[in-house]
Automatic annotation (TrEMBL):
Residues 38-69 form the 4Fe-4S ferredoxin-type domain. Transmembrane segments: none annotated. This is Glutamate synthase subunit beta. Pathway: Amino-acid biosynthesis. The keyword Membrane does not apply. The keyword rRNA-binding does not apply. PANTHER family: GLUTAMATE SYNTHASE [NADPH] SMALL CHAIN. It comes from the Bacteria. Pfam families: Fer4_20, Pyr_redox_2. Keywords: Amino-acid biosynthesis, Glutamate biosynthesis, Oxidoreductase. SUPFAM superfamilies: alpha-helical ferredoxin (SSF46548), Nucleotide-binding domain (SSF51971).
Length: 495
């Protein structure tokens, strides 16, 4: 480490966000442009040479965090980029979208604010692009083997890039008209501008990866035909089967799934639409679900000028500090966090009845009621206890012209026929079954990412893509030099 006392003398300083009143008027990223580089070297100095870096285990990618922190503190950006890209194909994505379990595992976080690992990662990635350190790396020779990757989310792209660099001919099939999966149409522009995605896709094309958009495998091309055409197939479709809310009034108009709502707002940003047909403009919006997808809906509704926005979370409001008995370091704790969208809602006072920012905690939806035309107008809720049982006398009603369901996902969508046509086995919860080598019960067919693991974080998605690439490479050639950071059975650090 460059400064042995950095963690004692330098306070934590994060990438500053733009003023709320400014950023809700546009779709640009929420952070102040150019404000990260001036502070990041000193922040990297806070890495304390702890000896046993638990941040390695907290991150499924096994990122070499102390190494690139030290290099950044010395402003050796090229070597820092090399160490970062050695374990992570897309650090500009994770540096913006990951909730940073590595910071929860930082040894400094035992009794001080953690090192700003996520910000350092993002700074390295952006600097690498600016200085030309992220040039394409096409293979020196081709293996003559072909691989089809179904899905262009972070898992599919990571697998495709690794396999392409190993010399295989890889084609990525994507059902949407543009590449990126949920990073394209699920993640709002204000969290990650799509230029970062397009730039990385350009690198992959230059390396030799082929892309096939607007192709739904199982519908536009039979899955069995694809399997016959390629030496191996990787299922990386993600977990897109959304969970439902079975309460009276669910059939009313104006009650939408989050992943019906968010893609339309992203298409407005892409220039496909002038206005979303599900726009929240002038409406009282209620979001059911307290996770990141719900927060994405919140920030989107604010930018569409909703009359009010309230987010319901069935869990009780967490405390501001880690509960050392229930969630000891270095696990990722459930604490009160203020995302950019929640900060905006708090400052703009978009939900006067909320407990904090725009959220109502320990709240469960009972039913919806509508008007004579069959459109939703009200959401009826009740407070719940720790067992999620209704608390008598706590019922209340919220105005609701637009209700967004952000309740998570259960596994891959079966409607396109991909799973059934291939005949791959599935687990009781709906995910694709696989063995310790990421292989399904169908020879030559592998599964990775949320489609097999279940809904998870972007770092786990990329780690799955890298690991399945090594498994496929081994299947095709008998051995592999590709890194395999995780097994299908690895899980986040918990109590």
């Amino acid at each position: 480490m460059a400064d042995p006392k950095g963690f004692m003398t330098t306070p934590r300083e994060e990438w500053p966000r733009r003023p709320v009143e400014e950023r809700v008027r546009d779709w640009d990223e929420v952070y102040v442009p150019g404000a990260l580089l001036p502070i990041i070297s000193k922040q990297a100095d806070r890495c304390m040479d702890c000896g046993v870096p638990f941040c390695h285990d907290a991150c499924p990618l096994g990122n070499l965090i102390p190494e690139w922190n030290d290099l950044v503190s010395r402003e050796d950006w090229r070597r820092a980029s090399d160490r970062l890209h050695a374990t992570n194909n897309f650090p500009e994505f994770t540096g913006r979208l990951c909730p940073a379990p590595c910071e929860a595992g930082c040894v400094l976080a035992i009794n001080q604010p953690a090192v700003t690992i996520k910000n350092v990662e993002c700074a390295i990635a952006d600097h690498a692009w600016a200085e030309g350190f992220a040039s394409p790396r096409p293979p020196e020779r081709l293996s003559g083997r072909t691989v089809a990757v179904i899905g262009s989310g972070p898992t599919g792209l990571a697998a495709a890039q690794q396999l392409t660099r190993a010399g295989h001919t890889v084609a990525v099939y994507e059902k949407d008209d543009r590449l990126g999966g949920l990073m394209r149409y699920g993640i709002p522009e204000f969290k990650m501008e799509k230029r970062h995605l397009d730039r990385r896709l350009g690198q992959m094309r230059a390396e030799g990866t082929k892309f096939r958009t607007s192709v739904t495998v199982g519908r536009d091309v039979r899955a069995t035909e694809l399997r016959a055409r390629y030496d191996a197939v990787v299922i990386a479709t993600g977990a897109t089967a959304w969970r439902e809310l079975s309460v009276p009034g669910r059939e009313l108009d104006g009650i939408q799934q989050a992943m019906e709502y968010l893609p339309l707002a992203n298409r407005v940003c892409e220039g496909d639409l002038t206005e979303s047909p599900m726009s929240a403009a002038g409406k009282h919006v209620v979001i059911v679900g307290g996770g990141d997808t719900g927060a994405d809906c919140l920030g989107t509704a604010l930018r569409e000028r909703a009359a009010s926005v309230t987010q319901l979370d069935i869990y009780a409001q967490p405390g501001a500090e880690r509960d050392e008995d229930l969630e000891p370091w270095p696990t990722y704790p459930k604490i009160y966090r203020l995302s950019a969208a929640h900060e905006e809602a708090r400052d703009l006072e978009t939900a006067p009845s909320a407990d904090a920012d725009a959220r109502l905690f320990a709240a469960s939806t009972l039913r919806f009621t509508g008007d004579e035309s069959g459109h939703v107008r009200s959401l009826h809720l009740v407070e719940v206890d720790e067992a999620r049982l209704p608390v008598p006398g706590t019922g209340r009603t919220l105005p609701a012209d637009l209700v967004l369901l952000a309740l998570g996902f259960s596994g891959p969508d079966r409607e396109d026929g991909l799973i059934d046509q291939l005949g791959v086995a599935t687990a009781p919860r709906g995910t694709v079954s696989r063995d310790a080598g990421f292989a399904t019960n169908v020879p030559g067919v592998f599964a990775a990412g949320d489609a097999a693991r279940g809904q998870s974080l972007i770092v786990w998605a990329i780690a799955e893509g890298r690991a399945v690439a090594a498994a496929v490479d081994r299947y095709l050639t008998g051995s592999s030099q590709l890194p395999s950071p995780i097994t299908p059975y690895d899980r986040p650090m918990t109590v």
